[in-house]
Input
Amino acid sequence: MKPFVIINFAMSLDGKIALGTGEQTKLSNEEDFKRVHELRNSVDGILVGIGTVLSDNPSLTIKEKYVKNPRNPVRIVLDSKLRIPENAKVLDGRSKTIIYSTVNNKKIPNAEIRVCGQDRINLKCMLDDLYSMGIKKLMVEGGSRIIGSFIKESLADKIIIFVSPYFMGPDAPNAAYFETAKKLEEMIKMKIISISRLGDGILLELEPDAITYNQ
Output
């Protein structure tokens, strides 16, 4: 058994999530920020990779500005080599933090370290472990390699994308990073469940296409 996995991210019109320098930039509008915090409040855990922690230093908590009486879910960080700095916001003790790694050779304040995998973190092992701890609904927020891995390994149950009204250019980081398809049957097809306007952007909801996703 594994948690129900929701991937959520904001991207530009050309599918980019950061500037060409790699610097994070705000792509969501206020309406989308509210939606994201409401979604965070509905899940049991929020997951990011160490790259997102190092570049963006998110707290992964819920702002009362958007949700009254918020409950902060478990924060999950994938950090194969335990590179997380001790001043990272996810280590502030405001909610439980779990770090999944391939090593457990040092103590991290305000965090539980769990090992899944050897050279790289085994996502299926990690999801099974989370489910055994009561994490039944998981929100994956990034970065692009994490999003790409969940999609490529058929582990996403729903993908929600906010599309902002900007183009960023070819050198900016892609929303989902994985090996490029070289033939038609290697492409990963999704079902578009809904398309709606959200302020000056568009909200897409996708689900796996059962015919192609599990090949």
Notes: The chain has one domain: 4-213. The chain is about 20% helix and 25% strand. The longest strand covers residues 190-198.
